[in-house]
Every structure is written in C-alpha cells, then in structure tokens.
Amino acid sequence: MEKESYNQLRERFQNFFLRYPELKWKKQVQVVNDSYPGTFNLSFNEPEHLKTFNNYINYNKKLFFGKIQPVIRYNDFLEKIVPNKDAYKYLGLFDMGGISLTYPDSKNMKEIVEKIIELGFNFLIKELGLDKNSLFIKLSAGGTVSDMTGGKYEFHKRIPPDTLSLKKWLKLGLKKEQIIFDSTRDTFLALSLFGHPSPWGYRAEILYNIKGDRKNLLDIGTIEYCPWKPVIKNEKIVDIVRNTGFSTLIVFGLERLLLAKNKYKHIMECDHILPLYKKIFSDTKIKDQHKSFVLIESIRVVYRILADVEDKKLGRHQKQKLRYYQKTISDLFNKLDIKKERIKTYLELYSKLNPFYPEFSNSAQKRPHF
Q1: What's the CATH code of the domain at 234?
Q2: Strands (DSSP E) along 73-197, which ranges?
Q3: CA 96, CA 133: separation in Å to the nearest integer?
Q4: Both 254 and 282 in a single domain?
Q5: Domain limits for position 285
Q6: One digit per residue, pLDDT tens: the chain, 370 residues?
Q7: What are the residue ranges of helices labelled H in the chain?
C-alpha cells in the first residue's frame, strides 16, 4: 500500500475538521508568543484565548477555530531526544493539529463533548483507516485534588470519574479492556498558566498500539473539556467551582498520526523530515544515526524560531534555550565532521520539504547561517 505523505495528511486533516459548523481555520501563531513567556509555544488554544478574552477562564462569546500549530517542547528534547529515551516517537519541533470550541455557557456541554469524541473517532478509524482494536483511551478515574496532583494543590475536593467520556467511547465500540483508568494529572487538567488562572477539567489521552505492546503505547492525541475554574485566595488556588462557560478541544500530533498510519519505525521517516536526515547523514564523516537525528531536530527548532522572530526580540530565558540548541548544532557539526557551510544547503532543502510554511523559504534566504 502506498504511504501517505505528510502534506496529504495535513490537507485531509483540515478538510475533515472544517466540516464542524461555524468553525474558522486560523493561521498558526508564532512559536514565540505572550502565552508562553520564557519558553516557546507548548500547546494549542492559549494564544487565541488570551487575544480574544484577555484571560483563560471568562468567556463572553463563542470562539470556534481549527489550526495546525508548530510546537516546541524543550524538556522533550533534553529528556527524550538527546538521551535517546523512546526517541523514535519524539521530535524537537512538531505540528499539533486540532479544533478548539469555547462557549459562554455550559448548558449543552455533554452533547458537545460527545460530538467531539465521535468526531475524533470517525477521523481516526473511518477517515485514516486506523485499527479500532489498536486504539486505547486513558481516562480520569477521579479522586481528590490533592492526590491527583501529587500534593501540588492541597485541598481535598473529590473529582468524579470522567463517566461522560467513558460511556461515549464504549458506545462507539471500544471494549472495556481498551480503557485505561488514571488518577494523575495525565488525565486531570489542573493548571495555572504562567501566572494566568486557567480552566480545570478532564483530559483524555488517545493512544495507539503500534508495536503490539500495551506497555508502550503511542500518544497520538488528546481531548479536553474544562467545566471548572479555580478559586484564588492570597495568590493561592484553594478550591475549584463550576465555571459559567466551558472550553473543549481535540488535538493530534500530526507526525505521530503519520507514524501510526504508515507504520514507520521512527518518526523521522515522515517525508518532510527524512530527506534532510539522509542528506545530513551522507555528509557526516563520523557515522552516528542518533547524533544525526539530534542535529536535525536542533536545526529544525532553531530554523522555526528564527523564521518567526528576530533573535533580539526573545526574552532572556528564550535566548538561553535558543543558545542551547545552537550550541548543540555547533558541537554536532564538529563531532560528525560536517563542513559548517553546508547549513545553507540544509535550510534550502528543508524549505522545499515544507511548502505549507512559506516563511521557511524567506528565512532560508535571510539566515543561511546560525
């Protein structure tokens, strides 16, 4: 069977989710934005919420949108990619695609969440053709806030299990054995986002068995819905109460979807990355596959940052992270014995591999060197 290309997947993804009523498709935000001071874009809908509502918990109107958003997770790079811990499924830079729905009231929350779950199921199974029997869902079993957050929050309000999601997934045909119950922050959203109060709620992890090993499932997506907001006293969260409105989202790591769809062994086999890997690896005089992968991800991250914003506009902590990636590039050029002037060739190739991001082409001309 012919492999699906990354560009095909992106187009299929957008066309499928644009069917949702009233949904508008937005351009991605820059990876340097006001929602993530000190780091780079980590998630999905926070920048749009901050821009539209000037906060994350009070909504005075509907906000429906979809997008494909570049994401950089610095800790994944340090803790997974560099030490080669399950690095086959991690990227330094990846695309998060999905839709976010925000309502000023929560009267139809149950029906809306059920619709989002069914939409996700239909996309994965009916549209992409993934195996329903290989799909697993990790859901909140409930518990006290103090226990579920590992003591980060000390109040003991009891959170009920996520029966809404459980019933819907079972109704769609999943077996009880495909449901994984959890009582941690993996499935319970309890956040204060860089000083901004954030909604609290349920998070369901969508997992896929690509290796025949239930202990090593691939996290391909997330569904969230947030019915609560925090109560703050003396700058400390002491309780949560039902919010007037609510937000929900469904997002997928698109490269991981392609990994599952095409049955790749490593995520760098995605066709918008693999030719760059082959080019760099062929240029190395010291052959090391993993170091070459780390180099590629460092280049991709730095390229994304500098395509979005000028170095001088970065904050202090963002500059520190950028410098780490840049130092990694320099060190690996030396260790792998690659000529430094080859960087321009790599940037031009990567721009051609990613025509859906035209800013890369412009950046390749402006910044041939890091």
Answers
A1: 3.30.930.10
A2: 93-103, 135-140, 143-144, 158-159, 179-182, 188-189, 192-193, 196-197
A3: 24
A4: no
A5: 272-366
A6: 689 999 999 999 999 999 999 999 999 999 999 999 999 999 999 999 999 999 999 999 999 999 999 999 999 999 999 999 999 999 999 999 999 999 999 999 999 999 999 999 999 999 999 999 999 999 999 999 999 999 999 999 999 999 999 999 999 999 999 999 999 999 999 987 667 889 999 999 999 999 888 888 999 999 999 999 999 999 899 999 999 999 999 999 999 999 999 999 999 999 999 999 999 999 999 999 999 999 999 999 999 999 999 888 899 999 999 999 999 999 999 999 999 999 999 999 999 999 999 998 776 555 545 5
A7: 6-17, 46-53, 74-76, 109-121, 145-148, 163-171, 254-262, 274-283, 289-308, 316-335, 343-353, 358-366
Same domain? 331 vs 246:
no
The amino acid at 91: L
Helices then strands, counting H and E runs in the chain, come out as 12, 13
